[in-house]
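Hi team,

Below is the intake form for C-type cytochrome from Shewanella vaxholmensis. Please confirm the fields before the structure is written into the shared record.

FORM ID: S-0412
PROTEIN: C-type cytochrome
ORGANISM: Shewanella vaxholmensis
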Amino acid sequence: MKKLALALSVVIAAISSPAIAEGNAEAGKTKIIVCSACHGMDGNSMIDMYPKLAGQHATYLQKQLHDFRSAAQTGGKDGRMDPIMSGMAMPLSDQDILDITAYFSSQAIQVAEAKDIPELGAKLYKGGDVSRGITACMACHGPDGKGAELAGFPTLAGQHANYIKIQLTKFREAGRHNDLNGMMQDVAKKLSDSDIDALSKYLSSLK
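The structure came back. Fields below:
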């Protein structure tokens, strides 16, 4: 709860801070050719281990690219290390990052019709589990899974279930630790494999 309060303070700070630099989506379209091999030309990845970037908050995408680049520059001491993305982000300039994220955020995400959605997924997302100290996911990611850009919480609705599953597992095992105040690690370490599977399938079904 304390970490959630800290996150809300970030929203207030962001609202009162000066406007940040903006990217050019048209310029970004010419810079995403390499990205498209995994993420698709419009940000709708056809490979479920890679995230859909279409419609994701630009500021969230910017943070991830900066973190990937930082990890490459520091040998993984800082940021978010990934064997593929850290190398891809390394040569990007700050303007490249702004343009690329402006393009992907302007695209519309494609959500496939979901079947056999576990009831547990909806239960954990909307209400958490008080007995295990699990906070409801919607407290940060919203009732519709669209997140909160100013607070740095990403859109999860319609994302590949397999990608969400991979990331929740990484957070649980501290293989990924670039989350705000360690909030995702705190939540994920309380989740079982069945919890993660159910949440991933539920989130992928949201439109």
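SUMMARY LINE: The radius of gyration is 17 Å.

Thanks, M.
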